[in-house]
């Protein structure tokens, strides 16, 4: 079992971000913390204890979790620790915006058991950061990285975006090399996508922005080559790390582990049940405080659906999936992928080739 906490507050709304978020507000954040702990209690109450075994990983995502003040983070984490059995905890990650990092906050997080930080650097080029609507500079991001090291964090991920408007191969290569020089334990690299309900998608439709699919493929291939040459192995489509430094929490998603999500918009999947919380902080808080189920979507998953999801997400991993998971109904798809050089059999597992990883999303639709 893994636990995810969605903290929706951000110092500024980025024009490309499709996650549920809102601008920070101190009073609302205090109410949010109370509601989060109350929602957790729904699953830790005596009658429901079987629903929430001791989590193996915890992940604070958003939004920007560190948009919360140091006292607010302390109250939230202590509240979780008081309500959870952490005897099996292997990893506790928090996402950070470089503009929200301070030594006081980092020291507190480390002392309360947070073991891993994922920092959204996105680029080491200030012009690109401005285009992406980020509130930090490359200088601030580097200072924040060193603050995290000073606070004792020895497991840091740096997030990157490639194919941003105006970004060419030379700019991306400089960013990758700068991150490699800092020697983080993990690097993520995501192609810019144009999602529903974002300013970037509106601008794309208006013609203000133009996608260049061939350049996206070129930049992705260069990212893989550059990072793997530096010892960061591509263990998932967008994630790179030396052996043993993979993100345990995200591996759980891709391998089909059960997880509980707290907070507005958070999704949970436990056994054959899946539900999603209301994508509205006020409505979610009102439901939780009233003792009403805060989910606005429920689904019962068939064994066939769970198996299909394990295949689709498992193929995103470089380790692939066991051949015996692939049912006979997918035999032709497997043959076709092998014939086109997009997948291969290795140690009784089916995995995508380098060429196949460039087309992972399209390949996944073959099994849905």
Describe this structure in words.
It is a single chain. This protein has 14 helices and 17 strands. The chain is α/β, with parallel strands linked by helices and 368 residues long. The longest helix is centred in the N-terminal third of the chain and has 19 residues, at 26-44. The chain is globular. The model has no long low-confidence stretch (mean pLDDT 93).
**Mass-distribution shape:** globular
Largest sheet, in brief, is: 9 strands, mixed
Q: Report the uncertain regions.
A: none
- CA distance, first residue to last residue: 25 Å
Q: How are the SSEs ordered, and which strands pair?
A:
Elements: E1 2-7, E2 9-10, E3 22-23, H1 26-44, E4 57-62, H2 70-83, E5 91-96, H3 103-111, E6 116-122, H4 126-131, H5 138-150, E7 156-162, H6 169-182, E8 186-191, H7 199-206, H8 213-229, E9 233-236, E10 239-241, H9 248-255, E11 259-262, E12 267-270, E13 273-277, H10 281-289, E14 295-300, H11 303-314, E15 321-322, H12 331-339, E16 343-346, E17 349-352, H13 354-357, H14 360-364
Parallel strand pairs: 1-4, 1-11, 2-3, 4-5, 5-6, 6-7, 7-8
Antiparallel strand pairs: 8-10, 9-10, 12-13, 13-14, 15-17, 16-17
Q: Which terms would index this structure?
A:
single chain; three-stranded antiparallel β-sheet; nine-stranded mixed β-sheet; 40% helix; alpha/beta; 368 residues; 17 strands
TL;DR of this structure?
The chain has 368 residues and is of the alpha/beta class. The protein contains 14 helices and 17 strands.
